[in-house]
Design a protein that fits this description.
This protein has 135 residues and is an alpha/beta fold. It has helices spanning 15-27, 40-47, 69-76, 81-86, 98-104, 120-132, and strands at 5-11, 31-37, 57-60, 88-93, 110-115. Strands 2-1-3-4-5 form a five-stranded parallel β-sheet. The protein is globular, with a radius of gyration of 14 Å.
Length: 135
C-alpha cells in the first residue's frame, strides 16, 4: 500500500478502545481522517445518509450492545453501491474465537481480522493485505 488511507471509520462501543485506536492510527500515520462511532447503529445511520463521506476503511468491533458487528455487516450489504464498492472492513475485536473470524471473513467487504490489542505488526500486515486488494 502506498501512502495513507484517506478516510477511516472506527466503530467500537468502548471510549477507551476508540481513543487507543485513534492514537495508534495517528502515530503510525495510517490515515488522513478518522471518524469514530460508539455504536453500530450510529455508524449505519451516518453511512446511509445521501451526503455521507464514504470511508476507505472501517475498523469494526464485533462485541457491542444492541447491534453487534455481525449486525453491522448484515446491514452493510444493503448500503448504496458507492459505499459497498469502495469500502473495506477490518474486524478489530477482542474475540479470538475461530468461529467469529471465519464468519466475519465470509463477508466480501471484510479484508482482514485483527484481535485486540492493536500492534504495529497488525498495521504492517494490513498494509500488505490492502496492497493486494483491488479497489
Amino acid at each position: 500500500m502506498e501512502g495513507k488511507v484517506d478516510n477511516t471509520i472506527l466503530i467500537d462501543d468502548s471510549e477507551i478502545d476508540l481513543f487507543i485506536q485513534r492514537r495508534f492510527l495517528e502515530v503510525y500515520a495510517f490515515t488522513n481522517n478518522i471518524t469514530a462511532y460508539k455504536s453500530a447503529q450510529e455508524a449505519i445511520e451516518a453511512l446511509q445518509q445521501p451526503d455521507a463521506r464514504v470511508p476507505d476503511i472501517i475498523f469494526l468491533d464485533l462485541n457491542m450492545p444492541n447491534i453487534d458487528g455481525f449486525g453491522f455487516l448484515q446491514n452493510f450489504d444493503s448500503f448504496a453501491p458507492a459505499v459497498r464498492e469502495h469500502c473495506k472492513i477490518v474486524v478489530l475485536t477482542s474475540s479470538n474465537n475461530k468461529k467469529d473470524k471465519d464468519e466475519a471473513l465470509k463477508y466480501s467487504n471484510v479484508v482482514h481480522y485483527i484481535t485486540k490489542p492493536f500492534k504495529q505488526s497488525d498495521i504492517d500486515d494490513l498494509k500488505e493485505v490492502l496492497s493486494q486488494k483491488p479497489g
